[in-house]
Structures are given as structure tokens and as C-alpha cells.
Design a protein that fits this description.
alpha+beta, Endonuclease I-creI, four-stranded antiparallel sheet, 8 strands
Length: about 290
């Protein structure tokens, strides 16, 4: 099961006790994947379509729990794709309460976002990337949903995609927050576990890369030092060098793999790391002048 499927499975099993929250969730479901209707007598109706059985079950059960009306469900099989389409239809004056639902309380906003994600949301596998989105058919719906999400200190944005409007989040911390808002607590814990492991791997990789770069830099410097010292030896010799430089040159030739600190301790008159580095730079300058 995909990560999106896991979230929807969890959210579909969540039913608010408060009627106003159920109305808010139903409104989101129908606005995202259905339509409201009203006949000449003012009798309201709702239609809902999905290819996800979990989502269909959620909408059907919400209608049953909230209203005492007959609800029809038709299942159509697509033999070529091997999938099913679920069409839900309900009619009754009570359904005007869904169309005219007031989503103002914090709990109702949570329910609305939850319903919107169940109907038209998706999320990438967090082990690969961080992306959370809900697809809206109209810009007004996208703006309404965006403002509702941002009421929870999120930073939702809208992008147009193939005649639809996508409300999305890209940052891991923001996705954690929206999962908490929707009350998808199991998915939130799983997401956090994946995110922690991912960040640990990235941190280890950065350290390894940094250490590898430092080792390569040290090896390159040591090779260059050896070349400079040998060049001085083979051209003018060491006898013309000051004693300190001669000592470092001979010791480096004898201990090519020693670190600067180790090299300083091996000299006839031991010096610190900075002292060794200073003398090696002097030798390098001499070699450059000799080559010129």
C-alpha cells in the first residue's frame, strides 16, 4: 500500500462525534469529488464518485451516520483497467445542511481538510521526497482550502496543473503539522521515523564526504611536498638549506605518511603543527623558484 493509501485508510476509520464536524467533512468530500444538486421544490441531492473503495465507504458511512435518508451506491467495473468506480447518490431536504455547512470552529476546519485529502489528496513516499497535495477543480475551492490550512500556521501554496488547482506543501515539518491537523497520528509517527532515518543517513553521508575530501586534500598536499623536497634534493641539495628546513625535508622523506603533528614530534628539535606547516611552505616556495 502506498503512503497516501495508508493515510486515507487511517483517516477513513476516523468519525467525528460532533454533527457539525461530520457536515464539514462531508462538504469537503462532495466539493472535491462530487456535486450538489437541488430540484424545483428545493430538495437537495448529492452525487459522489471515486475509484477508491475506502473513500467510497467513508462517504457512504458519513451520510448514513449524519442523515436518516436512503443512500444509493452503484459500482461500475472497468474491465480494461481492472478497477471499479463507485457512484453514491443521496437526496433529501436535510442535505442542504451539507451544502450550507459553516466551517468556522477549529475542529470543523480539521474535519474539512481531512475530507478534502481523503477525496482528492495524495502524498509522495517520504523516503524519496516530501510532497503533500490536494487537487481542486476550481480556483475558489483551492483558495478556500489554502486559507483553511494556513489557519494552522501552515504555508500552503497553489499551482495550476492541467485545468486543476493543486494546494500543496513541500517541507517535511509542514507535512508533519498537516498530518497532525488531520489527526492521522499513526501516519505521522511513521513519517517521522522515516524522516529521522533519512536525515541521519544524509548527515552520515555529509560527514563521510567531508572526511574523504579532507583525506584527499591531505594526501595531495603530502604528495606535492614530497615532489618539492625531492626536486630541491636533486637540484641544489639540502646543504644550502637552513637547519630547520633541512630537518623537515629529511624527516618528511623518511616518514612520507606522517601527519604534520607527528612530523613535528620526529624533528631533532620538535615543533608544533603550525611550525611544520610554515617550514613546508618555505620548501615549496624554494622549489617553485628553482623550477622558474
Amino acid at each position: 500500500m502506498s503512503f497516501s493509501g495508508m493515510i486515507k485508510e487511517e483517516l477513513s476509520a476516523h468519525y467525528s462525534k460532533a454533527r457539525h464536524c461530520r457536515l464539514a467533512e462531508l462538504e469537503a468530500l462532495i466539493r472535491m469529488s462530487g456535486a450538489f444538486g437541488e430540484d424545483r421544490k428545493g430538495v437537495a441531492s448529492v452525487r459522489f464518485h471515486t475509484e477508491n473503495f475506502t473513500v467510497a465507504r467513508k462517504c457512504f458511512t458519513l451520510l448514513q451516520k449524519t442523515f436518516n435518508i436512503d443512500t444509493c451506491i452503484a459500482i461500475r467495473r472497468n474491465m480494461s483497467k481492472g478497477s471499479c468506480g463507485y457512484n453514491i447518490y443521496a437526496k433529501g431536504e436535510e442535505l442542504l445542511a451539507v451544502k450550507n455547512a459553516l466551517v468556522q470552529a477549529v475542529c470543523c476546519k480539521r474535519a474539512y481538510i481531512r475530507g478534502a485529502f481523503i477525496a482528492a489528496g495524495s502524498m509522495s513516499n517520504p523516503s524519496k521526497s516530501y510532497h503533500f497535495e490536494i487537487v481542486c477543480n476550481r480556483l475558489e475551492e483551492a483558495e478556500y482550502l489554502k486559507s483553511m490550512m494556513n489557519a494552522f500556521d501552515l504555508d500552503a501554496k497553489i499551482i495550476e496543473r492541467k485545468k486543476t488547482y493543486v494546494v500543496y506543501l513541500k517541507e517535511g515539518a509542514q507535512i508533519v503539522d498537516v498530518l497532525n491537523v488531520m489527526e492521522a497520528h499513526v501516519a505521522l509517527l511513521e513519517f517521522e521515523n522515516i524522516r529521522i532515518m533519512k536525515e541521519m543517513r544524509n548527515s552520515v553521508n555529509r560527514k563521510v564526504n567531508c572526511e574523504t575530501a579532507n583525506i584527499n586534500k591531505t594526501v595531495s598536499a603530502a604528495v606535492r611536498q614530497m615532489e618539492d623536497i625531492k626536486y630541491i634534493r636533486d637540484t641544489v641539495g639540502f646543504d644550502r638549506l637552513p637547519e630547520g628546513l633541512k630537518d623537515v625535508a629529511l624527516t618528511r622523506l623518511a616518514y612520507p605518511d606522517a601527519s604534520l603533528k607527528e612530523l613535528g614530534g620526529l624533528l631533532e628539535t620538535p615543533v608544533g603543527k603550525s611550525g611544520v606547516n610554515h617550514r613546508l611552505r618555505k620548501l615549496s616556495e624554494i622549489a617553485v623558484k628553482l623550477r622558474e
